[in-house]
Amino acid sequence: MELDQLKDQRILAVDLDGTLLRSDMLFESFWSATSRDWHAPLGAAFALAGGRAALKRSLAGRMDIDVTTLPYDPQVIDYINAWRSEGGTVFLVTASDETIAQEIAQHLDIFDGVYGSNGVRNLKSSEKAAFLTDQFGRGGYAYMGDAEADLPVWESANRAVTVNLPAPLRQRVDGLGLEVEHLSTAQPGLRDYLKAIRVHQWLKNLLVFLPMLAAHQLDAETFLQSLLAFVVFSIVASSIYVLNDLLDLRSDRAHPTKCKRPFAAGTIPIAHATYLIAALMGLGLILSLFLGRAFIGIMLLYVVVTTLYSLWLKRKAIMDIGTLAALYTTRIIAGAVATGITLSMWLLAFSIFFFLSLAIVKRQAELMDSAARGKLKAAGRGYVVDDLPVLVMMAVASGYVAVLVMALYIQSPSVSELYTNPKFLGAICGILLYWISRVILLAHRGQMHEDPVVFAARDRQSRICAILIILVAAGGTLL
Fold it and tell me: Which of 129, 146, 365, 479 could form a cystine bridge with 153, CB 3.0-4.6 A?
């Protein structure tokens, strides 16, 4: 429809980021480009020298986003459909790059026209207001937006429709003297942020207490040092979890359960994720100063390795599971460094083989899920469904070797110095053999949670096994 034919039409201009979309395409395209090529941030920095519009155009050419899985706001879509059903005309007018906006509009098929940034013009705030006034005349359109940057646009409109606008900004829009309608569709809560930083995954960080327990060094000072190490590891690990979610947005949205993660689902604005990474990382590293230089070094190494894992290693078969096993073991090393306890090579060997087995089970579970959904490859991983038999053998071998290390440790001279009755510890080997075998079997049946550690925390039989191991260890010490 020609623009000069729209003078008598009810025209609605709709913003994209934070309005139609529960996300921000600048951040989406940045993280998508970075997940494909870790050099992308450097390219983005060079592009930014040409302005924000040039940056958006550069990222649009580097990203790989499936617009069909983006988190659109259903209430906004319903509003647009209602407007059109009453004879109105709707345009998507966004500061995001026009090439992205065109793809989204083509997918949704609810717009009569699309306008966006073109690599030179950044269609935002006063620039957007001037563009719409030039096209439709001052007061010739209604505008739907979500941010303070939209105030100049509303000032030139005949009607303001806001989406999830904070109360202070609502008052400013109400003071413009326009017809105003406020939509409240979704607001993130504390529970959403706790889910985003994966508090349930902090269970893994209890490994920092293992050196203290293994050495029977149970004094208050050692406990407090271990506790602080646990807090630091949890905070820093959460920042990496958030980073990993940003890099995995595409694959998460294609997954039947991971699509419900806060950033993939748009429950939390993606911009908040970027700030959350910096805040958590900074807080964790500051707290680590209280545990000494060696502990800081361990944490920095953990950050580097986990970042490499998120950007590259998790897509490399074998290297990914080796890295996961090493990261679990790093928690034990951190606990030893924080407390000054000398680590036993027995404990390190057991940890490597045991957590290598669990890492393989994690991949096994992902492949079983992919096979159940008719896919031949796990999204974002270096494995195909045909690898399952090999992975099962590797998981069994690694788990059983871990038990063998435990059995050899029980026979070592150092055990008699820590336990009054070391023979009790032999029962631990039987319990571990049962638990490892059961976990691998459940994964093979497709009954395993994507993370075997989280599964163990929720599984009744796993909890019973853990209690039995504690009782056996206590019996070996006290009886």
Answer: 129
Residue 1 confidence (pLDDT): 43
End-to-end CA distance of the chain: 88
* Cα–Cα distance for residue pair 283/280, rounded to 1 Å: 5
Separation of alpha carbons 74 and 266, rounded Å: 12
Question: Are 265 and 71 a contacting pair, CB within 8 Å?
Answer: yes
Give the pLDDT band (50/70/90) at residue 380.
Answer: low
User: Model-level pTM?
Assistant: 0.84
Q: Please give the single-letter amino acid code of residue 475.
A: G
**Tell me, what's the pLDDT at 3?**
44
What are the residue ranges of helices labelled H in 156-269?
167-174, 190-196, 210-214, 220-247, 249-253, 262-265
CATH architecture of the domain formed by 194-478 = Orthogonal Bundle (1.10)
| SS3 at position 147 | coil
C-alpha gyration radius of the chain: 27
Q: Which residues contact 406 (CB under 8 A, 6 or more apart)?
A: 350, 425, 428, 429, 432
Alpha-carbon dihedral 120, 68, 273, 59, rounded to 10 degrees: -30
- Scan for tokens 């689902």, then name that residue: 265
- How does DSSP assign 233-264, residue by residue? HHHHHHHHHHHHHHHTHHHHHTSTTGGGSHHH
Note the pLDDT tens digit of each residue in 190-234: 899 999 999 988 988 999 999 998 888 889 999 999 999 999 999
Q: What is the CATH number of domain 3-183?
A: 3.40.50.1000
How far CA 273 is from CA of 154, 403, 479, in Å, comes to 28, 40, 52
- Give start-end residues of each CATH 3.40.50.1000 domain in the chain: 3-183
